[in-house]
Amino acid sequence: MSKQTDIKKVVLAYSGGLDTSIILKWLEVTYGCEVVTFTADLGQEEELEPARAKAEMMGVEQIYIEDLREEFVRDYVFPMFRANALYEGLYLLGTSIARPLIAKRQIEIAHETGADAVCHGATGKGNDQVRFELGYYACDPNIKVIAPWRIWDYSSREDLIDFAEKHQIPVPKDKRGEAPFSCDANLLHTSSEGKLLEDPNVEAPEYVYQRTISPEAAPDKPTYIEIGFENGDAVSIDAVQMSPATLLKRLNDLGRDNGIGRLDLVENRFVGMKSRGIYETPGGTILLEAHRGIEQITLDRGAAHLKDDIMPRYAELIYNGFWFAPEREMLQALIDKSQQNVTGTVRIKLYKGSATVVGRTSPFSLYSEEHVTFEADSVYDQRDAEGFIKLNALRLRLAHRFKS
């Protein structure tokens, strides 16, 4: 590709790894532009200062490394969990929900630094290219977007290694061969896919799992915890108030130690193909169970069923990258309205890969033991049920006349 001249400054989503370091240099070579690096701490449990050192070594003058963990959980993870969102009934959307925050902050940095464009390292086969770019355009409709994997001439790992060596980019020895699988991580989850995981009929080896011990290795004695909720959001564990990120980190630790949150999934990507991923969402798995537990006693039946009806649509919007779309915001307003009385405490039993609700209480509980008891009561006249049943059966009785 010949050198481009219409781009003067680019904000690059930068991990400090080999691929984004190659992209950094490629941007400079291809566009003759200045590169601003942005590294987001979303709780991926990696030391981020090496990313700063790597960027400095490569001559970058404007380096952004930002701790976004609290914002991530408070403004993205928690709103999503109010909806009990699961993509295709199983996936807790750990990668999907991180992309809009990164995209939003990347655009903000572009505005702060006077950059012409933003750049990501997602490939042309995956969902992340869509998520990043929909986020970019939602936050700045006129921003220029550079996606190297879709436009550069390199077609193999060897090509990239050659480029790195030509431009004095350090290549770790373990990067000279094919990595066994690729990983993405944040405070909500870890995702592993590709290479040895591409055959969906082959069980993932144990070393793929990074955030959880196996259920078989988990303690033989269950762990009990109590999670407190206010207006649909978790606020405490065992009566200790915690910030959103601190609380999710604690749930991750509890889930890890009890082998909770593993998922082997073949999912339908937005771009059209199926892919196999290994996900670990220990804290999120516990949180979802607890949230549904508190909703069981605080949500009216109609409200609960409506939430369940719209949840797949809401989850699909997030999976496909439409966090900033008006329909997602409309659904969020409905969901948040439903959470006004979702306050109380849920007791959870953690044991060998499972998180099970074993108790729940709320000052707004709609559960009436007086009504539901099998013993004598003075509030429910069982004779009323006859008319209720006959009215509901009327259409069935009428339709029966025409059955052969």
CATH homologous superfamily classification of the largest domain: Argininosuccinate synthetase, chain A, domain 2
- According to CATH, what is the topology of the largest domain? Argininosuccinate synthetase, chain A, domain 2
Number of strands: 14
Global Rg: 25 Å
* Level-1 CATH class name of the largest domain: Alpha Beta
Helical residue percent?
A: 40-55%
Total domain modules? 3
What structural category arises from helix and sheet content?
alpha/beta
For the largest beta-sheet, the strand count, sense and barrel status come to: 5 strands, parallel
Q: What is the second-level CATH architecture of the largest domain?
A: Alpha-Beta Complex
Average of pLDDT: 94
* Percentage of residues in strands: 15-25%
What is the H-and-E element order? EHEHEHHEHEHHEEEEEHEEHHHEEHH
Low-confidence stretches: none
Give me the number of helical elements. 13
Categorize the overall geometry.
elongated
Strands side by side in the biggest sheet? 3-2-1-4-5
Q: How many angstroms does the end-to-end distance come to?
A: 72 Å
